[in-house]
C-alpha cells in the first residue's frame, strides 16, 4: 500500500492487528469527541460558551503540566515563536466560534459542517503554500461544497448564526492545519501543544470575562468531564493513524455524525434533518477522498525521493 510506508504485519495469536487497533482507536475517538460536544451543549444552558471554552483550555494546561515539568524548559525552546503564537490565535478563534455554534445549532448539523475543515485546508494550501490543484481535487472540492449547500439550503431557509460560526471555525482551523504542516518540520507536537495551550487559555479567559460566573461543583464536574473527553478523544485519533492505514481508519470518523444525531435526539430532542445527513455524507466523502489521495501522493513522493523506503 503506497499510502502507508509500514506494511501491516500479522498479529501474534491473541493480539489485535495494527488495523484492528486503529479501528478501535478511531471509533473511540469519534464517540469521545461527540460526547464532548454533547457536554458543551448541556453546559451552555447555564454557562456562557466562552467560559466553557476557557475551562477546556485551563484543564488542558493541567493535563500538559506534568509532561512539561518532567522535560523542564526543553519544550519551550523555539525559534518560531511567531508561528506558534499565530497558531494559538487562530485556534482560539476556531474554538470560540465552535463552542458558541454548538450552543445554538443542532449537534448533527454542527458535526456535518465541521467536516468542511479538510476542504478549506485544501484551498488555503493552494493559496498559501502554492500547492497545485489538480482536476480530481477540484472536483472533490466542488462536491464537498455542494454538500454544504445541501445542509444550508440558502434560498429555501434562513442560514442560522450557528451554522455560520461552525463554518468560520472550520475555516480558521484549516489555516491552523497549514501552520501545523509548516511547524512539524522543526517543532515537536508537544512544543506546539504547549504554546497553543498557553495562548488559548488567556484569550478564551478574556473572552469569557463579560459573561463570567463561578461554576457550581456540578458544573465543575462536567467541565472536567468535557476536557477529559476532548483530551482522550484527540489522543485516540492520533493513535489510530499510528496503528493503522489511513484508508482503514479515516472513513470511521464519519461515525461522529451518527453519535451526534443520537445524542441530539435522545438528550436534547433535536430531530434529525435528512438534508443534514445527506449533505454531511457528501462533505465527508469529499474530504476523505482528498485526505486519502494526498496521503498516497505524499507516500509515492517519499518513495521516489528515497527508493530504499518500503
> Structurally, how many domains make up the residues?
1
Largest sheet: none
Query: What is the element string, with H for helices and E for strands?
Result: HHHHHHHHHHHH
Secondary structure tally, helices? 12
Low-confidence stretches: 1-7
The helix-and-strand class reads mainly alpha
Average residue-wise pLDDT = 84
CA radius of gyration is 20 Å
The quaternary state of the protein chains shown equals single chain
Number of E-type strands: 0
Task: Note the overall shape.
Answer: globular
Summarize the amount of helix as a percent range: over 70%
Explain what the structure shows:
75% of the residues lie in helices and 0% in strands. The protein has 310 residues and is an all-alpha fold. It has one domain (18-132, 157-271). Helix 1 (18-43) packs antiparallel against helix 9, helix 5 packs across helix 7 and helix 6 runs antiparallel to helix 12 (274-305). The chain starts with 17 loop residues before the first helix and ends in a 5-residue tail after the last helix. Mean pLDDT is 84; it is low at 1-7.
Q: Secondary-structure blueprint of this entry?
A:
Elements: H1 18-43, H2 49-71, H3 81-104, H4 107-114, H5 117-128, H6 135-152, H7 161-183, H8 189-208, H9 217-243, H10 246-249, H11 255-268, H12 274-305
Helix pairs in contact: 1-3, 1-9, 1-11, 2-3, 2-8, 2-9, 3-7, 3-8, 4-7, 4-11, 4-12, 5-7, 5-12, 6-12
Amino acid at each position: 500500500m503506497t499510502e502507508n510506508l509500514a506494511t501491516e504485519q500479522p498479529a501474534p495469536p491473541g493480539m489485535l492487528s495494527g488495523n484492528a487497533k486503529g479501528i478501535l482507536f478511531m471509533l473511540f475517538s469519534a464517540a469521545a469527541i461527540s460526547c464532548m460536544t454533547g457536554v458543551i451543549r448541556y453546559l451552555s444552558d447555564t454557562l456562557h460558551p466562552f467560559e466553557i471554552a476557557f475551562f477546556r483550555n485551563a484543564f488542558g494546561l493541567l493535563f500538559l503540566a506534568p509532561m512539561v515539568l518532567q522535560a523542564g524548559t526543553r519544550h519551550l525552546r523555539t525559534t518560531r515563536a511567531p508561528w506558534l503564537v499565530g497558531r494559538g490565535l487562530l485556534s482560539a478563534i476556531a474554538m470560540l466560534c465552535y463552542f458558541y455554534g454548538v450552543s445554538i445549532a443542532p449537534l448533527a448539523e454542527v458535526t456535518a459542517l465541521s467536516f468542511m475543515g479538510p476542504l478549506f485546508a485544501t484551498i488555503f494550501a493552494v493559496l498559501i503554500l502554492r500547492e497545485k490543484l489538480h482536476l480530481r481535487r477540484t472536483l472533490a472540492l466542488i462536491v464537498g461544497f455542494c454538500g454544504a449547500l445541501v445542509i444550508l439550503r440558502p434560498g429555501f431557509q434562513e442560514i442560522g448564526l450557528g451554522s455560520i460560526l461552525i463554518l468560520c471555525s472550520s475555516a480558521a482551523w484549516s489555516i491552523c492545519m497549514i501552520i501545523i504542516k509548516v511547524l512539524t518540520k522543526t517543532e515537536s507536537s508537544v512544543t506546539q501543544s504547549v504554546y497553543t495551550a498557553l495562548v488559548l487559555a488567556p484569550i478564551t479567559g478574556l473572552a469569557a470575562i463579560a459573561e463570567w460566573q463561578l461554576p457550581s461543583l456540578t458544573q465543575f464536574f462536567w467541565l472536567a468531564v468535557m476536557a477529559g473527553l476532548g483530551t482522550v478523544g484527540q489522543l485516540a485519533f492520533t493513535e489510530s493513524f499510528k496503528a493503522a492505514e489511513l484508508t482503514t481508519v479515516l472513513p470511521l470518523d464519519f461515525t461522529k455524525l451518527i453519535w451526534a444525531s443520537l445524542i441530539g435526539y435522545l438528550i436534547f430532542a433535536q430531530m434529525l434533518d435528512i438534508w443534514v445527513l445527506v449533505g454531511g455524507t457528501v462533505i465527508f466523502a469529499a474530504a476523505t477522498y482528498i485526505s486519502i489521495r494526498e496521503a498516497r501522493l505524499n507516500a509515492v513522493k517519499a518513495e521516489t525521493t528515497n527508493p530504499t523506503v518500503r
